[in-house]
Each structure stands twice: as structure tokens, then as C-alpha cells.
């Protein structure tokens, strides 16, 4: 079948561990055998017991108390320790028959952008163990309530992407909070939801002119040339494309899993599948569309509550 590993990364609290659990639960309902790998030496608890857990090799708490390091230095030390002890990882990997790993990563962005530590773990899996890899990068949906925050989030995703050089999927997590009005402006609840929804639509398929004018409206004129440069960058590279995610919505999780499978060409003997919920689109008689159209449709369904999954709650706007 081949060996596959998807790394779930993103800033602290962006929903990585929750999404790992949701992906595993969804894969289980499809009868698929996937394994959780914990690469976060500071993790506390998991819904599913990790099959491989870096804390069995080294834990952040021990490193901090024994070496007197702070949390960030301690984390870097833990990764260096892991890389010095790859035989441990090798032994853990060797016990699998079906290798589809869902890897929960630490939230410290500098691990992906300032060091090559994560990159070396990825290379070890790809080169020494023939894993096909994919990296998911989560950004919380509150990044879309302000264009300058969106730029910051997009640029951090881009710098991690350039550093790691593996198939990449950007995810806007917790979009259900937008529809509840928890994220966005301070107007009335329904107004806030609508505004947030419009923001999200704008950022899923950004119009460069609109992005530039709203960035210019909230920044010093001296920064307008920089805004224009960032908008060009955002417009020119596909890093700007985000898949919306609600970890509590099975359809959303299913769509993400299908994008991950597609990125890694999971099941190479089978016909490669387009990253979409095929049954739903076939039922609706839709022909194949481009990826962005798909994302927009999924997003529309998510926000309008047309989830089509038994037991999944609709989202009120
Ligand atoms: N509403 C909503 N909440 C979510 C979603 N995903 C995660 N959360 C919540 O966000 C919080 C953080 O989620 P985690 O999964 O622990 O985030 P994390 O990225 O693993 O955090 P660290 O490991 O500390 O970096 C928790 O309270 C989750 O319940 C989502 O899709 N919707
Ligand atoms: Mg976590």
C-alpha cells in the first residue's frame, strides 16, 4: 500500500490535536487503519492513544527541570535529541504494517521557520523510509477579521512552506466560530456573522485590489508600497488558498482527508481521486470543477448548514 504521513502543524492553539482526532475518527468510520504520532514533547492528553509518542523518548517537562531550559529552548533541545536518536524512531516505525500516520506537531512556529529540525524529520521519513508526505498548516479563522492579520498569517505559512518543501495544504480552522459571531467585528450577533462570512469568502478567493485597498485603509501611507508587494505575493502564489475546517463537522473533516489523500496520492494502485466528496457531488449531478470552486462550495455548505451528514449540526448565520 505504501507509507504515508501527514504532519498537522500551525500556531499554538490553532486546533491541531482536535483535527488529528477528528481525522482519525473519520478514517475509522471509513474502515481505514490510521495511526496517531505525537511529535509534541509538551503535549498533555489525547483522545486517541498515540501509536508513537515522542514523550516516551524525551519530555519537555524533564528537559526544562533537568537542564534549566525555558519552554522554547527546551523544545528545540527535544527535537535535537530526537534527531540524535533516530534509531528510536526507526524502531517505532518498523512495527507498523499499514502506514498512514497522522502526526501531531508542536505549535512553536520557529521550529518550522527558523530551524531545519522538522525538515530533517520529514527527510528521514521520506528518504530513509519512503514515506509520502504532506503538511497541513492551520491558521485560526480569526485571521480573516483583519487584513493585516491575514497578511501576517499568510506570510508565516509561506515561510514555513518554503522551508519544508513538501506538498502543502493551508487550512483555516474553527470556521464554525465565524458563523456564531465569536470572531469578527463588534456589531450585533447576526451582523457580525454576516460580516465575518463575507470576510471569509473574500479571503478564500481574494481580490488583490480589495485586499490592497483594505490594507491601505488601516495602515500608514508609508506602508502602502509594502502592502502592494504583499498583495502581489499573495496573489501570485497558491499559498493564499485555504481550506475551511470545522473539526466538529464530519463533512468538513471528510473533505480535508480527501485533500490530504490527493496530495499524497494515497493508494497509488487506485485511480487518483479528486479532492472532493464524490458522492455528494455525483448526487447533485455536478461535473468536475477546479479546486477553488470546490473549496467555495464546501465552505458555502459548511456555513449554510447543508452538511448532509447525519448528526452533524447545521451552522446558523
Ligand atoms: N469551535 C471550534 N473549536 C475548536 C476547533 N478545533 C479546535 N477547537 C478548540 O480549540 C482549542 C485548542 O485546540 P487544540 O486542538 O488543543 O489546539 P492545538 O493546536 O493542538 O494546541 P497546542 O497543541 O497547544 O498548540 C480547544 O479548546 C479546542 O476544543 C473547531 O473546529 N471549532
Ligand atoms: Mg495540541
Produce a short descriptive summary:
Keywords: GTP-binding, Hydrolase, Nucleotide-binding. The chain is α/β, with parallel strands linked by helices and 317 residues long.
List the topology elements.
Elements: E1 3-9, H1 16-29, E2 35-38, E3 52-53, H2 60-67, H3 71-84, H4 86-94, E4 99-104, H5 110-113, H6 117-129, E5 131-140, H7 147-164, E6 168-173, H8 175-179, H9 189-204, H10 208-217, H11 224-236, E7 243-244, H12 250-264, H13 278-283, H14 291-304
Parallel strand pairs: 1-4, 1-5, 2-3, 2-4, 5-6, 6-7
Residues 16-17, 40, 43, 104 line the site of magnesium ion.
Protein model, in words:
- With 317 residues, the chain is an alpha/beta fold.
- α7 (147-164) links the parallel β5 and β6 (168-173).
- α1 (16-29) packs across α12.
- The model is unreliable at 183-192, 277-292 and 302-317 (pLDDT under 50).
- A 7-stranded parallel beta sheet has the order 3-2-4-1-5-6-7, with helices on both faces.
- 43% of the residues are buried.
- Helices cover 50% and strands 12% of the residues.
- It has one domain (3-205, 241-304): P-loop containing nucleotide triphosphate hydrolases (Rossmann fold, 3-Layer(aba) Sandwich), CATH 3.40.50.300.
- Bound molecules: guanosine-5'-triphosphate and magnesium ion.
- Guanosine-5'-triphosphate (GTP) binds at residues 12-18, 40, 107, 173-174, 176-177, 246-248.
Strand order of the largest sheet: 3-2-4-1-5-6-7
For the record, the CATH architecture stands as 3-Layer(aba) Sandwich
Principal-axes shape call: globular
**Rg measurement, Å:** 20 Å
Let me know the number of strands: 7
What is the helical fraction, as a range of percent?
A: 40-55%
Enumerate the distinct ligands.
Answer: guanosine-5'-triphosphate, magnesium ion
CATH homologous superfamily? P-loop containing nucleotide triphosphate hydrolases
Distance separating the two termini: 43 Å
Residue-averaged pLDDT, rounded? 79
Q: Given this structure, which CATH class is correct?
A: Alpha Beta
Biased composition (Gly residues): 308-317
Subunit structure: Heterodimers with GPN1 or GPN2. Binds to RNA polymerase II (RNAPII).
Function: Small GTPase required for proper nuclear import of RNA polymerase II and III (RNAPII and RNAPIII). May act at an RNAP assembly step prior to nuclear import.
Protein name: GPN-loop GTPase 3
